[in-house]
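INTERNAL AUDIT FORM
Audit reference: QA-55
Scope: verify that the stored structure record matches its stored sequence.
Auditor: D.O.
Record contents follow.
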Amino acid sequence: REVANRGRGDHVGEMALIEPSQRRSADVVAAEPALVAKLAHAEVTKLASRHSDIYRVIARTLARRLLERNK
């Protein structure tokens, strides 16, 4: 069943980034050809140590998606 659509510039998997041991809640399937990148938890942590605003962007996205889901 389709849960949501994501587009250019969107990210997925942020819940796993915040809590890596948590079971995944969904699969992602591209509806059309897409260029994607997969970053390991360690890579994102290292990147975020230099650019802490990454976590703020993720938090905003999670909050927005939660609000959308609860409508």
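Auditor finding: record pair retrieved intact. The mean pLDDT is 88.
Action required: none
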